[in-house]
UniProtKB/TrEMBL annotation:
The organism's taxonomic lineage, starting at the top: Bacteria, Bacillati, Chloroflexota, Candidatus Thermofontia, Candidatus Thermofonsia Clade 1
Taxonomic superkingdom: Bacteria
Entry protein name: NAD(P)-binding domain-containing protein
Record SUPFAM superfamilies: NAD(P)-binding Rossmann-fold domains
Pfam families membership: NAD_binding_10
Any one GO molecular function term: protein-containing complex binding
Domain NAD(P)-binding: 51-191
Amino acid sequence: MISVTRIFKAPVVILSLSALECLSLESIRTSGYNAWRAFKMRRKAMIVVTGGSGFVGKALITRLAQQGEPVRVLSASGKKAFAGLGQSVEVVQGNLYDAESLYRAMIGAHTVFHLASAQWWGKKRDLERIDIRGTQNVIAAGRSARIGRLVVLSHLGAASASAFTLLRVKGQVEEMVRTSGLAYTIFRSGIVFGQGDTFVNGIAQLLRANPFIFLQPAQGESLLHPLYIGDLIEALVRSMEHLDTVDQTLSIGGPEYMTFNEMVRTIMRVTKARRLIVPVPPWTLRAFANLLSRFFPYFPLTSQWLDLLAANRTAPMGALYDLFEMQPRRFEDTILTYMRGRPYRIELLRTLLRRRPRRIA
């Protein structure tokens, strides 16, 4: 793995910046002009984040602010949501559908982390509007602003021909980014878990919803590759200094594979919520989820949530170490630090009472 800081240790005599720019692609071992342009702009330049109010976005902005990096956030809610993060965080009020605010957010940016996504809440049209149309607008603004690199978060298993809506939309987004003409890095991650996630904590809430049983899609044999939020953020931050991640699609996960059934049993053990696991045909759960979403927009079980369990979704074991020399954290050891003793029944009630915003952005 070649990092920016290590390039200058290569056995090459460098007389000036202009001379460095004249080096062959082979001598600096980059992925082409896009990689060199992304590096040339780096030097503590502005970093832009979309989707800053989400689980991953909040964690990334907090980490960048702690490092003293200049961060600009595109947010429909304005500065209040990011108060207390320090003066290095600038907020541009706007959304993915306002070309003027998008351009203002991206002008002078070295790296744009495009994290805004409907994920598994909302209807199919929300996914198409936010993930597809939103990404189209981000790409257009990025071209106009001449950004250094676009970094996009996707899912393991994403494919434009997938039969499952969430994975198909993510696959379409990936294709748009690859053909955008911008320098890019696509991260395909496994299930991202942490103190504020909605997948693993959603399972804990569902376990508390019924004191006797837990409805599981089929036998729960789909293979997952959970990744701790802190490790994902570390990988995103380190990628800014690694030229050989430019114009690449990187598949990453944690240190272990586990089936969905194993994940549920681990969560039951940690939260001390013993339930009888009842296998249910996936189509039955999908119909049940669609019905519940009409009355409870933020119910943990959704059709898109089930998409993530529809097939095996794993990355090569050891990918994070090979890419960034990182040793990710194990699932059970990590959730033990924050899940035990949490009032998941109360959290479920709060989730059910949440109202869907008039417009998801």
